[in-house]
Amino acid sequence: MSTNRKGIMYAIITAFLWGFLAIVLKVAVQEVAPQTVVWFRFAIAFTLLLGWQTIKHPQSLRILIRPPLMLVFAAMALSWNYLGFMLGIHYTSPGNAQLVIQTGPILLALAGVVFFKEQIRKTQLWGFVLAAVGFIFFYSQQIKLMVGEETEYNMGMLLTFSGALAWTTYAVLQKQLVLKHTAGALNLFLFGFPTLAYLPFVDFSPLLNLSWKWWLILLFLGLNTLIAYGSLAQALKYTQANKVSIIIILNPTITFLTMGLLNWLDVSWIEAERFSILSLLGALTILAGAVLVVSKKRTLKPTKSAA
C-alpha cells in the first residue's frame, strides 16, 4: 500500500470515528451528566497515553511538571471545546452539533490569514461566503422545526459554536507548540489537564449503578478520543494536510446518514433528527464552503506533511 493510500485510510478512520462520536455522546447523556462524560473521555485517553509514554518515551512526562504557558492555554481551550460540543449535542442533536462544529476549521483558515499572514485565495473567499450563506439558511430552516424548543436549540447552537471557537484557539496555539515538542508529550498534557480540571464537577454516583452496556459506551468514547487523534497524526504523516482536512470535514455526512438510517429503523434509544429538505440543502452548502476553505492550491511537486 502506498503512503498516500495509508494517509487517506487513516483520515477515513478518523472521519468515521468522529462521525459516530456525536451519536454515541447523545446516547451517553441519557444516563450520565455531560461534564462526567467529558471527564471520562479525557481520563481514559490520558491513562492509556500515560502508560504508553511511560514505557516508550519516559522523558515526555517532564512536560506534566513544567508545561509551557502556551500549552496551558491550549489545554484550557481544548477542555472547553469538548464540553461545548457535548452540551451542544445535549441541547440540539448529533447532526446539528456536527455541522456547527465545522466552523472550527473555517475559523482556523481565517486565523491563518490574520495571525500567520497566510495568503487568501479566491477559492477560499467563495468558501467563506458559501459557508456563511449555508449557516444562515440552515439555521432559519431548523428553527422553524423546533416549535416550543427554540430557547434550548439556540443555547445548543451557541455552545457548539463556542466549542468550535475554542478548538480554533487550541489549533492556533498547537501550531506553535509542535515546533518545539512532540505530539505525544503535548497530548499527554492536553488530556491530563482537563482530567484534573473537570474532576470537581464529576458526579460519580450514577457510574456505580451503570450496567455493562453503558460502561462499554463510556469505554468507546474514551478510546475514540485516543484512536481518532492517533489516526489523524498518522494521516498527516503519510499524506498532504489538505487531503486529510477535506476528508475529516466531511464527517457530518456520516452522522447524517447514520441518523437517517436510525430514523428509518425507528429505534427508541435515540431521539430522531428533525431535518427538512431545505435545511439539508443548507447543510450541504456549509460543507461545500468548508471544503473550499480548507482545500489547498495544487502544486507540481507536492510536499510531504509532518505530523
* Strand elements, count: 0
What is Rg? 19 Å
**Average of pLDDT:** 89
Tally of distinct domains: 1
Morphology call: globular
Question: Which band does the percent of strand residues land in?
Answer: under 5%
The major pleated sheet works out as: none
Structural class: mainly alpha
SSE order? HHHHHHHHHHHHH
Instruction: Specify the helix fraction band.
Output: over 70%
Distance between the termini: 19 Å
Helix tally equals 13
pLDDT < 50 stretches: 299-307
Membrane topology: Multi-pass membrane protein
Domain EamA: 6-139, 155-294
Subcellular location: Membrane
Organism: Sunxiuqinia elliptica
What report would you give on this structure?
- Residues 6-139, 155-294 form the EamA domain.
- This is EamA domain-containing membrane protein RarD.
- Pfam families: EamA.
- It is found in: Membrane.
- It is a multi-pass membrane protein.
- The protein is mainly α.
- It has one domain (3-294).
- The protein contains 13 helices and no strands.
- The protein has helices at residues 3-28, 34-56, 69-91, 94-100, 103-115, 122-145, 150-177, 183-197, 205-208, 212-238, 241-249, 251-265, 277-294.
- The longest helix has 28 residues, at 150-177.
- The radius of gyration is 19 Å and the shape is globular.
- The two termini are 19 Å apart.
Annotate the secondary structure layout.
Blueprint: H1 3-28, H2 34-56, H3 69-91, H4 94-100, H5 103-115, H6 122-145, H7 150-177, H8 183-197, H9 205-208, H10 212-238, H11 241-249, H12 251-265, H13 277-294
